[in-house]
Design a protein that fits this description.
single chain, about 190 residues, alpha+beta, 2 domains, two-stranded antiparallel ribbon, 8 helices, 6 strands, about 40% helix
Length: about 190
C-alpha cells in the first residue's frame, strides 16, 4: 500500500529502518507496517532488498490465490434464483413473440435471403469456384421465379449478402413493392 503524500513528505529521505518505525506509530499505516516482516536485518538495521520484494510478492500471491480461488466459490445459493429467472424469462418471451402475418415485415424488416449451402463461408467458396448460382424469388401471391446469377466478377473480397441485398429488386422498399416474400440462393440447380 502506498502511504499518504503528507506522511511521505514527513519521512522524506530518512533511512528505511526509520520509515518502518514511523509506520508502527500511526495506526492508519498498519498495512504498511507489515513490510517489516519482509525486510532484511543487516547490522541491526532493516533494509529493503530484492529478496524482500520476492518474499512479499510470494505472500501476496498465496493470499490472493487462497482468497479468490474459484474452487472456493459456491453458487449453490443462486440455484433457486436462476431457476425462477429462467421460468420468468420463458413466460415473458412467450408473451412477447410477435404474431406473424402477411402484412408484417419479415425478419425485422429485412428481406429473408436463404443460402444453400447455409454457411455463408461455404457458399462463398463454392460461388468463387463455380462462378454461378441459382436465385429463386418467392412472391406473396404464391408464385416463384428462378434466375441464374452469373458471378464472374465476384471476388474473394466480395460479400455474399451485401452483393445480393444491393440488387435493385432486393433493395429495401423495392422488394416490398414487388411483393417478394423471400429469396433462396443455391449453388446447385435442385429446386
Amino acid at each position: 500500500m502506498l502511504i499518504s503524500g503528507s506522511h511521505n513528505a514527513a519521512i522524506g529521505n530518512k533511512p528505511f529502518s526509520d520509515k518502518v518505525m514511523s509506520y508502527n506509530q500511526n495506526p492508519l499505516l498498519n498495512q504498511q507496517a507489515e513490510i517489516k516482516d519482509y525486510a532484511i536485518n543487516e547490522n541491526e538495521h532493516l533494509v529493503w532488498k530484492s529478496e524482500s520484494i520476492t518474499k512479499r510478492h510470494n505472500y501476496i500471491l498465496k493470499f490472493a490465490t487462497r482468497i479468490w480461488n474459484f474452487d472456493n466459490i459456491s453458487l449453490e445459493h443462486l440455484k433457486d434464483e436462476i431457476e425462477d429467472n429462467k421460468t420468468e424469462n420463458i413466460l415473458k418471451a412467450e408473451n412477447e413473440i410477435p404474431k406473424i402475418s402477411k402484412t408484417q415485415p419479415k425478419n425485422n424488416g429485412k428481406l429473408i435471403i436463404e443460402l444453400n449451402p447455409h454457411l455463408e463461408s461455404e457458399f462463398k467458396q463454392l460461388l468463387l469456384e463455380r462462378k454461378q448460382a441459382y436465385i429463386t424469388t418467392y412472391y406473396e401471391n404464391g408464385t416463384s421465379e428462378k434466375r441464374i446469377w452469373k458471378a464472374n466478377s465476384f471476388k474473394e473480397s466480395s460479400g455474399v449478402m451485401g452483393n445480393l441485398r444491393s440488387r435493385p429488386e432486393f433493395r429495401n422498399g423495392k422488394w416490398q413493392e414487388n411483393g417478394i416474400e423471400k429469396v433462396n440462393v443455391s449453388i446447385e440447380n435442385n429446386e
